[in-house]
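quick q for whoever's on today - can somebody do inverse folding on this one?? i tried earlier but teh output was garbage lol. tokens:
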């Protein structure tokens, strides 16, 4: 049972309110919005809310935490929790108190959950249709009533649209119509997408009013639909005049009036796809955001909630479809639709559904396969430009499945060729695999990059690489140890400055995450212009715990950046990295993926080595293959040996022999190495010195493992050295 407060608590609370100037003394908008006749909050919930505020203000963290836990454990809906805080506020800004509690040690998680519950309650209350109707009915009750109602209707945002449109079609509410038109224009951008859909309304008078409102709001999202209606020969002159006026108000340059509706729809689709500032969901912090659908039967719009992560992709899909309905052969619209459709499938959260998908919709990959290289190459180009690795990999899959040589390497601007230099290892590797399998008969731009990338894939281990900048030596060492010993087992290149860390990472083939203090983050983007390893890499910005929220707000527009506590542990860093990776579409390489990449690359190098007319110089991979003979993964070491055996390479032959004779090599691997030494000798002849040959003779004559002896004998015979080794072996066995 939670302790009861005494009269002294009230006195302490009063003192705390007086001295805690940062909290303020005003109530929140939600408290103001509560109708005078609203019922009081549940007494128990109100007491818990009151005690939480009190104990937070007097710095009794454990007692504040206990009350927060009790509030969260209740089955009361969020709006009742909100009401409890409103009734318990007593001059305190309860939201500021909760935010301050988030900054206290041991309170961050529970206070965050409590704030989410309160904010959810505020949203539910603001969007309650009954409340919206009540506020709309008050609009005509004088200037003060209008202003109060307007504040609450702004809080409802786009969710008031169906009610406004219902009232505007109700002749019994005619006296409210001018006020509703006025409030819609005042609310502005949140209402653009539902009002655009409502342009399909059957009432021509209402349609003109909506056109005028869209003109006053002034956002370009309305231009495609307005222009389509303007170009429709069935549109009457009065509506045409209204449209012309609205377009002129929205687009002061006059360019929109010269563009076709299809061009405007496509431009809108591109803006949604690229997440241009005003083309983003209204409530990005919420789990879902609505897209608006016109219901012919209701003659009104309805909201369809889609996961926020895919909202922009869904809107881009819809706009691209609108383009194709006007211009079915628009290649740019087809490619953009493919990219957006695949991206929404990739970014759909696990367990979530996309209600915007029609019953006849197939998986995105099917459409990519059917489209072919002419439309998929632009998808890959778009993915590479945006550093969207997940989409790039899907596009490469489709290209490899459907593209002939011409479809893959059409010229200098071929996206697949450009992908060979992409900063993401997975993208580089998969591009090289596709081009190696295609094995074009003639050289193409950057063909010489394929083998080095294949060699890089052979060396892939899956251990992620972190570039770490921490000014304090002790903190840097502690964080380095945490990253190395954590579940991800980072390879860490650390320094007290960004320059020092980069110097340490000179030979790192790739960088998976950059962790820098706030004052160093500006240098990351500058370096990325010249260092491909840094392009599109997630960046975690460290700062004091109290500043995390502020830093995150400042970098919110920077794709792939996330703020973290400078004392964050490895799990916290991994969680932030996962979010940042999702933002840039980066795909981590696991140990399993790395082994698959290495095996695939070795298989391809072997096939290319066997093709003596290939444009690819597999011999350039010999140094990597030689190093790989010592790989701890037997299947990878074996694969490297087989490629060396297929090559005419003196260095490869020497490495096969040396590794086979090494005491550190196990018997099974020695068999493979001697067998491949025999294959190499058939092509290269003998390049081994006498001591190595004598070592092989010794193995043939004395090794305890018969399989090793047999393989060594095969190698010795293939070397075909002009010595008496055969005679020596014969005499050795004679009695």
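ok took a stab at it. sequence:
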């Amino acid at each position: 049972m939670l302790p009861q407060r005494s009269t002294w608590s009230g006195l302490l609370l009063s003192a705390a309110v007086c001295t805690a100037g940062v909290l303020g003394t005003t109530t929140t908008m939600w408290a103001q919005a509560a109708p005078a006749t609203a019922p009081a909050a549940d007494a128990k919930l109100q007491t818990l809310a009151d005690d939480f505020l009190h104990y937070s203000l007097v710095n009794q963290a454990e007692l504040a935490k206990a009350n927060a836990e009790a509030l969260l454990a209740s089955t009361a809906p969020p709006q009742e929790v909100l009401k409890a805080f409103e009734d318990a506020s007593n001059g305190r800004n309860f939201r500021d108190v909760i935010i301050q509690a988030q900054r206290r040690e041991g309170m961050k998680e529970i206070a965050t959950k409590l704030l989410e519950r309160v904010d959810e309650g505020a949203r539910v209350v603001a969007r309650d249709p009954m409340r919206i109707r009540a506020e709309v009915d008050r609009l005509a009750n004088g200037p003060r009533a209008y202003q109060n109602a307007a504040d609450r209707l702004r809080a409802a945002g786009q969710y008031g649209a169906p009610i406004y449109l219902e009232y505007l079609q109700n002749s019994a509410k005619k006296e409210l119509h001018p006020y509703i038109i006025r409030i819609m224009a005042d609310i502005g951008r949140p209402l653009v997408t539902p009002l655009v859909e409502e342009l399909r309304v059957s009432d021509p008078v209402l349609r003109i009013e909506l056109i005028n409102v869209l003109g006053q709001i002034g956002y370009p999202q309305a231009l495609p639909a307005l222009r389509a209606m303007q170009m429709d020969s069935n549109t009457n002159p009065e509506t045409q005049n209204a449209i012309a006026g609205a377009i002129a108000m929205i687009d002061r340059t006059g360019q929109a009036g010269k563009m076709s509706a299809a061009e405007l729809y496509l431009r809108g689709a591109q803006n949604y796809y690229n997440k241009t500032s005003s083309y983003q969901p209204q409530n990005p912090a919420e789990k879902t955001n609505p897209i608006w659908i016109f219901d012919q039967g209701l003659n009104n719009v309805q909201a369809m909630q889609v996961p926020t992560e895919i909202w922009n992709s869904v809107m881009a899909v819809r706009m691209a479809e609108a383009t194709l309905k006007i211009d079915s052969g628009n290649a740019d619209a087809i490619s953009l639709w493919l990219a957006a459709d695949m991206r929404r499938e990739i970014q759909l959260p696990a367990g979530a559904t996309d209600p915007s998908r029609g019953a006849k919709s197939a998986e995105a990959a099917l459409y990519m396969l059917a489209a072919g290289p002419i439309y998929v190459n632009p998808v890959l180009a778009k993915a590479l430009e945006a550093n969207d690795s997940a989409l790039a990999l899907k596009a490469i899959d489709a290209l490899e499945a459907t593209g002939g040589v011409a479809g893959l390497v059409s010229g200098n601007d071929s996206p697949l060729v450009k992908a060979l230099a992409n900063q993401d290892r997975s993208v580089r590797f998969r591009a090289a695999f596709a081009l190696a399998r295609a094995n074009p008969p003639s050289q193409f731009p950057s063909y010489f990059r394929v083998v080095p990338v294949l060699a890089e894939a052979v060396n892939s281990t899956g251990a992620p690489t972190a570039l770490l900048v921490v000014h304090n030596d002790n903190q840097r060492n502690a964080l380095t140890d945490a990253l190395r010993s954590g579940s991800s087992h980072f390879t860490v290149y650390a320094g007290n400055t960004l320059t020092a860390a980069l110097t340490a990472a000179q030979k790192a083939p790739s960088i998976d995450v950059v962790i820098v203090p706030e004052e160093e983050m500006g240098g990351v983007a500058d370096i990325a212009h010249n260092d491909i390893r840094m392009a599109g890499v997630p960046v975690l910005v460290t700062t004091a715990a109290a500043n995390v929220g502020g830093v995150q707000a400042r970098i919110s527009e920077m794709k792939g950046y996330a703020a973290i506590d400078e004392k964050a542990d490895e799990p916290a860093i991994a969680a932030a990295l996962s979010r940042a990776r999702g933002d840039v579409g980066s795909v981590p390489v696991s140990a399993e993926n790395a082994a698959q990449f290495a095996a695939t690359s070795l298989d391809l190098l072997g096939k290319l080595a066997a093709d003596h007319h290939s444009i690819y110089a597999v011999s350039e991979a010999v140094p990597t293959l030689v190093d790989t003979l010592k790989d701890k993964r037997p299947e990878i070491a074996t694969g490297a040996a087989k490629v060396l055996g297929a090559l005419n390479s003196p260095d490869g032959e020497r490495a096969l022999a040396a590794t086979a004779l090494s005491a550190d090599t196990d018997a099974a691997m020695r068999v493979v190495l001697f067998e491949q030494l025999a294959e190499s000798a058939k092509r290269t002849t003998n390049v081994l010195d006498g001591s190595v040959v004598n070592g092989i003779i010794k193995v043939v004559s004395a090794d305890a493992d018969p399989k090793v002896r047999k393989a060594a004998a095969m190698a010795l015979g293939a070397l075909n050295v002009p010595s008496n080794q055969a005679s020596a072996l014969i005499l050795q066995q004679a009695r």
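fwiw The longest helix spans residues 591-610. also The CA atoms of residues 330 and 480 lie 52 Å apart. so keep that in mind when u check it
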